[in-house]
Amino acid sequence: IDLGTTNSAVAAMEAGSPTIIPNAEGARTTPSVVAYSKSGEMLVGQIAKRQAVINAENTFYSVKRFVGRQASEIEEELKEVSYTVETSGSKLLIVCPQAGKKFAPEEISAQVLRKLSADAGTYLNAKINKAVITVPAYFNDSQRQATKDAGKIAGLEVLRIVNEPTAASLAYGLEKKNNETILVFDLGGGTFDVSVLEVGDGVCEVLSTSGDTHLGGDDFDKVVVDWLADKFKAAEGMNLLSDKQALQRLTEAAEKAKM
């Protein structure tokens, strides 16, 4: 399972090679978004993302930025989300006014994992209770343990936590070749990670990692949204960004245009 900041995906080994499994909606990726609707129903994935703008304080996205982190480490991240994150000692709690509850970040991530494993189970016609989950190479022990905890909450035995660039090189079978040094370039929805790996003789070793943890496809969308809103304001004299319904539609249109 690739549990991403913005989107997640799940694959299974079929005939010795990894195959991406589509979710219940038929998509190869699932937005890493959990929301509680006005009626109190929990929404996960695309359905949660589609109401994110109009239900901002009850829609939880980019939760991966808070998993396994302490309050002192996430001052920048807090400015970038529309929901409330409280601190309880060194622990973080995500506030959900609609449900009248506070959740640990791992509990929110667990809901995404639960959907991914349930959809994979339906597709494979099997009960999924064990998984390998990937994390960025720069994740520390606390973030890795918290990811494992999220798996456990989702009812999964996490067999291993694997570095994302390592998983990418394994997917290409690069470890079966002679020794070589490779660069893995991973531009996601929320983060941009670059890693240098040494691969060969059945081994993948991450030598160094860099990038920008606040640069991804979401930022491209935002630039397109702002540009469209500016154009519309100049032509029609209306600010679309102040209308939540319009902003939701604009955000979806910007993402579609980009893709």
TrEMBL record:
Keywords: ATP-binding, Nucleotide-binding. The keyword Transferase does not apply. Pfam families: HSP70. One of its GO terms (molecular function) is ATP-dependent protein folding chaperone. It comes from the Eukaryota. Gene3D superfamilies: 3.30.30.30, 3.30.420.40. InterPro entries: ATPase_NBD, Heat_shock_70_CS, Hsp_70_fam. This is Heat shock protein 70. It comes from Strombidinopsis acuminata.
